[in-house]
Amino acid sequence: MAYIDLQNDLPGIRGPMAFRPETAKPLNELAEILLHSEDNSLSRGEREMIGAYVSSLNDCFFCQSVHGAMAQHYFQCNMQFIDAIKQDYKSAPVSDKFKSLLSIAGSVQKGGKHVTEQQVENARSLGASDREIHDTVLIAAAFCMFNRYVDGLNTWAPHNKQVYIGRAAMRASEGYANSNPNR
Amino acid sequence: MAYIQVEEGVPGIRSLVLFRPETGKPLYELAQVLLRGESSLTEAERELIAAYVSHRNNCLFCASSHAAAARCLYGDEKNTVDEVLHDMQQSCISAKLKSLLHIAGKVQILGKEVKPKDIAAARNLGATDREIHDTVLIAAAFSMFNRYVDGLASFTPTDPAVYESMGERMREGYVLPQTTKK
Description:
The structure holds 2 protein chains of 2 kinds.
Chain A: H1 14-19, H2 21-36, H3 44-57, H4 61-75, H5 79-88, H6 96-110, H7 117-125, H8 130-152, H9 161-174
Helix pairs in contact in A: 2-8, 3-4, 3-6, 3-8, 4-5, 4-9, 6-7, 6-8
Chain B: H1 12-19, H2 21-36, H3 43-56, H4 60-74, H5 79-87, H6 95-109, H7 116-124, H8 129-151, H9 160-171
Helix pairs in contact in B: 1-2, 2-8, 3-4, 3-6, 3-8, 4-5, 4-9, 6-7, 6-8
């Protein structure tokens, strides 16, 4: 049960978003541009995976389930592949460039100052652009917000992971900008 | 020097949103709604929450600038800001505001650190659901802003006078910068 009366019984972030639409609007717009916009050289799957990875480090069940399912949808893989990246991305069959970005995201999760010049140089030497480094840092930072919002208000989350997988195609086609928290 | 190529000499988040205005727009809108929008918490109190979380995250740019904005808004009681940043529990603020800052401090660590008794304490001191919601989201948002600013090693001025004038501008609200002038 959420700590405050949200006047709805929606799961996860959808509860407080329906409670306070004025703040939901910029939050959804931020998610849209970072995760769903086509104007990005990182794929939608990669961006969702960064969100899922940071959410798993923050131990936020709702966010890692939603965004893990989104990454799975875009990657056209199974959930074992997503879980393997979350648990040990260094051993997972993803590109070195993507690993270098996940490494930066993991440092952002600990605190901004944990990101080192060496990590950034490594990503750059593997082909990452300034825009990609920027977006990786901001996606990781944004999930440090979303995770705290969702868990700090103690919102509830469906336990069945199939629920999240079942919603991924709808969210992928609609995006986040105009998402209605009630559905 | 910032990790990515942003305009030289432009400080903090300003340099980052000029680099990427598409994400800057919702970020500034979020700050405006949370810190300047209609609320039963004063603008000074909300800036104080922002400064408190940024201080705990050791983000010098956000802590200095939002502390400066809070000092402007507190006016004659501007010493409140430094008292709170020095020792929140011993400061002269109301018990209710202390209970909200306590929740913000928990959020800064991690969402799950907020416990039912933290919420009950705030509620007993008169905090509403909306006030608790906004406190959690302000603290969460600054856990983002702080990481954004420091994760890209954006330029952090050290001269207190720079922050003083920044605070005066921030009092007027958050509008996405359109030009590259400092």
